[in-house]
Design goal:
64% helix
């Protein structure tokens, strides 16, 4: 059961988390608590989605490459 669920997450959710960790440096969160950390992660996802959308409308070859936009 666990392997089946992780197999599905591996192609959908895990690549997104990898991109967020790479772009925002969130391998270790600087905040504590579920509410605060979930708000922080959702804010990162929102900023990431805006950056990907901006790359799409400006015609960037790789719209998912947003690390340079966040100066990391």
């Amino acid at each position: 059961m666990f392997c089946t669920i992780y197999g599905i997450r591996e192609i959908s959710v895990e690549p997104l988390f990898e991109c967020l960790k790479d772009a925002f440096g969130t391998s270790v969160l600087l905040v504590r608590g579920f509410d605060i950390s979930s708000s922080y992660v959702l804010m990162c996802i929102f900023a990431y989605q805006i950056a990907v959308y901006y790359n799409c409308i400006t015609g960037n070859d790789n719209p998912r490459c947003v690390k340079r936009m966040f100066s990391n």
